[in-house]
Amino acid sequence: MTDNVRLTEREETILHAVIHTYVTTAEAVGSRSIVKRYGLGVSAATVRNVMADLEDQGYLEQLHTSSGRVPTDRGYRYYLNHLMPVQPPSPEERDQIDTELSQMVRDAQEIIRHTSQLLALISHHPGIVEAPDDTNAVIRHVELAPITDSRVAMVVADNYGGVRTMLIALDEPLPRDNVEKLNQFLNEQGEGVTFEQMGRAISHRLETSQDEERRLAETAVRVLGLMPPHRSAQVFLEGTIQLFEQPEFHDVSKARAIFTLLERRDHLIELLRARLLTEEPPRFSVVLGSEMEPEGMEEISVVASPYMVGGQTVGILGVVGPRRMPYWRITPVVGYTAGSLSRLLTRLAG
Amino acid sequence: MTDNVRLTEREETILHAVIHTYVTTAEAVGSRSIVKRYGLGVSAATVRNVMADLEDQGYLEQLHTSSGRVPTDRGYRYYLNHLMPVQPPSPEERDQIDTELSQMVRDAQEIIRHTSQLLALISHHPGIVEAPDDTNAVIRHVELAPITDSRVAMVVADNYGGVRTMLIALDEPLPRDNVEKLNQFLNEQGEGVTFEQMGRAISHRLETSQDEERRLAETAVRVLGLMPPHRSAQVFLEGTIQLFEQPEFHDVSKARAIFTLLERRDHLIELLRARLLTEEPPRFSVVLGSEMEPEGMEEISVVASPYMVGGQTVGILGVVGPRRMPYWRITPVVGYTAGSLSRLLTRLAG
DNA sequence: GTTAGCACTCAACAGCCGAGAGTGCTAAAG
DNA sequence: CTTTAGCACTCTCGGCTGTTGAGTGCTAAC
User: Fold this and answer.
1) Residues in chain B within 8 Å Cβ distance of A157
2) What average pLDDT does the segment B3-26 reach?
3) Is residue A209 domain-shared with residue A148, that is, in the same domain?
4) Is the CB atom of residue B214 positioned under 7 angstroms from any atom of strand C?
5) Cβ–Cβ below 8 Å for B147 and A164
6) Range among B45-59, B129-143, B224-238 rated most confident
7) Which residue is nearest to nucleotide D24 (CA to C1')?
């Protein structure tokens, strides 16, 4: 994907200039406008020659003969890998992120929803955040609370401060006085491990124990067997209307395509997981639409970062926008937000 | 609002015809096209005269001199009140609603979210459903489940099958062995009444009881005092992309306006509440955008209905669309869905 | 290798024209 | 008095044209 060719210095300067002006103006950029704006000590004609070279190499393209150049995905990729300045977010942005996040005092779920709004607010593009899913959450405490004879709520607190409730419809009533013991048993088996591990521990007990403990294990298996299947991770996507501001989506058919795409937000996050979390360690990344597997996302790109609790990656957050995004501004914001969220959740959990 | 003037029969026929063709074609309708399509035994010139009359009376309007007529809000209102055929949904629609709803077996929250999708699916317009809010939910069972020393989860089952969990951050730890008794106490006070009533009952105990019961009441007050404020009712709005299909929203600026509007879905539902639930009994209703208080919703209208559990109204559901909506098709669907959802939730609660 | 000059291309915009749909008015017919 | 036919008029929409301006590619000179 990232081939190691390096462009000459002048080519880099000009590619950088093209991308920068294209991103800010949303219009194909010509040789003259570049020398005007950046006045590198050469003439428009020279710039033209270099641009032609860059086009041959696939970094730029023309929409039609004789109009300005526009960066290709390859051009963006090169920019992202070699040219983009590495900088922290502006003090104002940092301030805004910090204060907004520090005002969130409720449970993990709420914090995560608000983070997506925060991202949208600051980046002026839709923000997306995936809530940690159950699969590898470590149980800190579990409690069965009987609601009626035939229904029981299972409250699970996990290691990153999240608490969720599952409703279990029983096939036969749970003896009331048994609940206390069952809770104790579940916590013995479940504390500090994942759901899957708890299941295994209980099965093991079922085989090796006797009498009361065995009876408890049987009940536990019965109850847990009736548990609804794991909820797939929740994804919050906020601020989608911001896309209307982008001139590329002023065409209604394009806008519709994008919105249709974004409706499948679980799908989108799945693609991001594939890109971010397969690497070790999982890391920050900008994903261009055309680099994603199933076609159809050519128009968009995502600046995404994993976030973690206590050193372990638990989810992804990011900003969605058109390919023509001010990456140099968005990237620091996303990175900083991921860091702040990680810290906040870790504190909440600890 | 509904003035009692009745139009002549011929005027009604023509108004009906204009609305019907305008809704289906989305184009201003002229006299000739009406006689062609409906061939009432009169000439185009006569129709023209009648249309001119209807325009004078404010039921129709012209976009510009010499193009067809378009219904005004007043025209729609008259249609809705006097002209629209009263009919059940088509067998296929009924079928679809029944099967989709019967497949939902999870908790009330999930059912309600899916109902908004269902409405969108069948009506081809965005569906909106307001989840029952806490304010007048009757507590069926309440249970405190300690998570850590400083946090406790309160699980509340209400009378319509909903279960919600609230996290309470304690100021000082809750003695573990006290929890059992506290739970019992809370249920004694809370079962069968609303939150507010429970609060009052406990305050009363605090004044009249002594010793242990008084101590329990004190603890209860302390814990409940730390409870987060009532969550405002959740509103699910699904299928908004369907709006892109409507020609009136092919203009991006209009589309953006609508989407901005719909982002404040809690606000929208508030307006609907004001319209539907102030009447006694609360009833089915079509609300045209211009009839709503704060300006700015002229472009849309909502077909909405309350739904209930065990005879009591607990929420609102509906379909949002452009003014130019096929009310005769949507209205039965919304009504039927409200009925089915009411039955389902009542069954679930019972 | 770089620059100036020049001919050429293309999108975007404004203006114009004709077709088509629809109206309002008037006068004649019922 | 109501209905109808006829006619002149209005307005939108689509297609066509010419112009403008930004931008390119090429070539020859520096």
Assistant:
1) 147-148, 151, 153
2) 91
3) yes
4) no
5) no
6) B45-59
7) A66
Q: Does A141 touch chain B (CB under 8 A)?
A: yes
CATH of the domain at A206: 3.30.390.60
Query: By the 8 A CB rule, do B182 and B219 touch?
Result: yes
pLDDT of B1 over the 60 cut: no
Mutate to test the interface with A, among B244, B246, B262, B266 (most CBs of A within 10 A): B244
Distance of CA A178 to the CA centre of its chain: 42
Last residue of a domain, one of A204, A225, A246: A225
B256–chain A nearest CA distance, Å: 6
Task: Identify the pLDDT of residue B153.
Answer: 85
d(CA B218, CA B268): 40
Together in a domain, B170 and B28 = no
- A326 lies in the same domain as A249: yes
User: What's the domain count of chain B?
Assistant: 3
Tell whether B106 is covered by a domain. Answer: yes
State how far the alpha carbon of A3 is from the alpha carbons of A74, A275, B50, B102, in Å.
Answer: 10, 18, 74, 55
Domain range holding A332? 91-133+232-349
Structural domain contains residue B173:
yes
* Res. A106 pLDDT band, cuts 50 70 90: low
Nearest chain B residue to A239 by CA distance is B263
Mean predicted lDDT score pLDDT of chain B: 88
Q: Which of A233-247, B201-215, B333-347 has the lowest mean pLDDT?
A: B201-215
- Mean pLDDT, to the nearest integer, of A336-346? 94
A176 touches B: beta carbon within 8 Å: no
| B28: its two tokens | 């201003």
Q: Which residues, at least 6 apart from A7, have a Cβ–Cβ distance to it below 8 Å? A: A15, A54, A57, A59, A78
Whether B350 has a pLDDT exceeding 70, the answer reads no
Taken in order A262, A267, A269, A275, is the CA torsion positive or negative? negative
In a domain, B255, yes or no: yes
Identify whether residues A126 and A240 lie together within a single domain: yes
Average pLDDT over residues B149-159: 82
Task: Please state, in angstroms and rounded to a whole number, the distance separating the CA atoms of residues B171 and B121.
Answer: 48
CATH code at position B326: 3.30.450.40
The beta-carbon neighbor of A244 closest among B146, B167, B256 is B256
Please, which pLDDT band fits residue A14 given cuts at 50, 70 and 90? very high
Q: How confident is the model at residue A94 (pLDDT cuts 50, 70, 90)?
A: very high
Q: Assess whether B289 and B336 both reside in one domain.
A: yes
Whether residue B172 is found in the same domain as residue B194: yes
pLDDT value of residue A61: 94
Over 80: is that where the pLDDT of B29 sits? yes
Residues A118 and A248 in one domain: yes
Domain boundary among B225, B256, B271: B225
Q: In A, which residues are within 8 Å of B250 by CB distance?
A: 252
B47 contacts B14 by C-beta, under 8 angstroms: yes
Task: Find, in chain A, the residue whose alpha carbon is nearest to that of B177.
Answer: A180
Residues A49 and A100 in one domain: no
A226 touches chain B (CB under 8 A): no
d(CA B10, CA B50): 8
The size of the A-B interface in CB pairs under 8 A is 84
